[in-house]
TrEMBL record, chains A, B:
PANTHER family (UniProt xref): LACI-RELATED TRANSCRIPTIONAL REPRESSOR, LACTOSE OPERON REPRESSOR
Protein name from the UniProt record: LacI family transcriptional regulator
Keywords on record: DNA-binding, Transcription, Transcription regulation
One Pfam family recorded for the sequence: LacI
InterPro entries membership: HTH_LacI, LacI/GalR-like_sensor, Lambda_DNA-bd_dom_sf, Peripla_BP_I
GO molecular function: DNA-binding transcription factor activity; transcription cis-regulatory region binding
Keyword Transferase appears in the UniProt entry: no
Chain ranges of the HTH lacI-type domain: 5-59
The organism of origin for this protein: Streptomyces candidus
């Protein structure tokens, strides 16, 4: 992408004023649809990039931002990719998505690629990396934003604030007379825990509930793991009457299994998902869940990345509020 | 990724014979799980690549293969990405996914990136490109594989063979006494048509059915377009009793709208999807569809790409057979 292209070149190609180009780029003033399209076409045609990206390009970097995720089959990450793309595209940055299948070697391979190809930046949901793995990037001066429950060293962090939403979920569950809660949790991360499980455990105490080890199942963040976890929970003595799930894919797997076993949802067992993935409202009954907006995560990550490209050096954390979404499974 | 790493280096690091490394890479003989893991770890650690990739690297190319798709929110493409990744990973090639939102400027921007960054190859489902746009790649010597219904110039092609599956769908539909078929088709592609619509039209004649223009709605390949299209079809005189959909997302949108309008599926109207996306079996009633296996497409595309990297110069087409999947909506 040519660095020498200026806003004036874009204006000339689009047949508009430089100010109009600037308005289209900044979004600070409304620009008529046809004019906007002409400017966007000229930007694309000429490969124009605004300062932020241009600065990174002058340092020899590519205009690629890698989004590294553990499972592209989970629509949360497709939404995150779309959101990130929408934010970064006007800056001339191109998002490319890398699916690691939560495999540590793959995660590291993509970090290496980012360094070797001098990517403009990395946005990553690490699964099996440790803070040390990120040194590779910081040494190469490539900004990284982590989207996760916990920080990784000195990288910027976008993280959920799900406390209020989970409290609302527990209020709904206990209000429906449920007392025996269980969880189909995710795999242990690099720190050995699952923050969603730990949050549920901490809040349960406040509701006078217990979450004994025998009512906690662990698995991957997949539909298959949800089915297996639910089958196990239905086999224990004093089986649970409310099951919290690590994410919506896990909850859908639990619903599959409930149907197979003839267990009524929510008649016999209430089910609570997490994320509000696109299919949460698709299944019947519609899944009650805790929404963690991938769009908001993408926006926050883009902002943090652009700030770094603009020269910020201190570490930042952005908390994205989750929201309880009552539907039909409690 | 270092090119100088040899199979012998990998063997030494993994504490196995060179032959064992070769078996792991080729899959020609079974290798015990632990041994396989050790070899794979050594491959990842040393950044070893087999000849195919090494050859491209020696020519100054990166190990990145770009998968360029129109809509990452469609699980078909997430599956395609996973399949492609699985095939190319043992060769030391890294798949990165680019979402164009079916936008021509974006499609061209990624082709330009591929050239500028000297990617190892491109696998693409083009939406608004023409054959001419691919010259950029062929001039740079970057192999491209198109996954689409129609060829684009001299690029290799992976394309569906859905004739038998669609015939089976029509047999099922007419067997259920339906005569008034309609289609919620996709947008016009670069050639001005929608091959799935044209196939249905051609086959309908063989079944003594007609598919008049008033019973064909066009839209994007989205749930929203499906809902809008279905609403329109329910408003026409002599409304259809069977609706074929451009893909499963469109069919799910039609189901949403049917529920809203109180139209029974399949009682009042039969519904047929396309692709067998992950959510096709998730909805109730389960969606009858035509399966086009993203896994098979990914395998075929990987094979074609590797052949090109190995030096093949003549154009090839691989046809992937679609399959009728009867469930509960006819």
């Amino acid at each position: 992408m040519a660095v020498r292209v200026t806003m004036a070149d874009v204006a000339r190609a689009a047949g508009v004023s430089t100010a109009t180009v600037s308005y289209v780029l900044s979004g600070k003033r409304a620009v008529a649809g046809g004019t906007r399209k002409a400017v966007e076409a000229a930007i694309a045609e000429l490969g124009f990039t605004v300062n932020t990206a241009a600065r990174s390009l002058r340092t020899g970097r590519s205009s690629i931002v890698a989004l590294v995720v553990p499972d592209l089959a989970n629509p949360f990450y497709a939404q995150l990719a779309a959101s990130l793309r929408e934010e970064l595209r006007p800056l001339g940055l191109h998002v490319m998505v890398c699916d690691t299948k939560a495999d540590r070697d793959e995660e590291r391979a993509y970090l290496r690629e980012a360094v070797q190809q001098r990517f403009a930046g990395v946005v990553i949901t690490p699964f099996r990396l440790t803070a040390k793995d990120f040194l590779l990037l910081s040494e190469a001066g490539i900004p990284a934003v982590v989207s996760a429950d916990l920080p990784f060293g000195e990288t910027d962090l976008v993280t959920p604030d799900a406390r209020a939403a989970m409290r609302a979920a527990l209020t709904e569950v206990t209000g429906a007379g449920r007392r025996r809660i269980a969880m189909i949790a995710g795999p242990r991360d690099a720190t050995g825990g699952d923050p969603r499980l730990e949050l549920l455990r901490a809040l349960a105490v406040q509701f006078g509930l217990s979450l004994p080890g025998r009512l906690v199942v662990r698995g991957e963040h997949t539909r298959e793991a949800g089915a297996a976890g639910f089958a196990h929970l239905m086999g224990v003595k004093h089986r649970p009457d409310a099951v919290f799930c690590a994410n919506d894919a896990v909850a859908i797997g639990a619903m599959d299994k409930a149907e197979e076993l003839g267990v009524g949802i929510p008649g016999d067992v209430a089910l609570i998902g997490h994320d509000d993935a696109s299919f949460a409202s698709l299944v019947r009954p519609r899944l009650t869940t805790v929404r963690y907006s991938a769009v908001d995560v993408g926006r926050a990550a883009a902002r943090l990345l652009v700030e770094r490209l603009d020269g910020r050096v201190t570490r930042r954390t952005v908390r994205v509020k989750a929201e309880f979404v009552p539907r039909e499974t409690v």
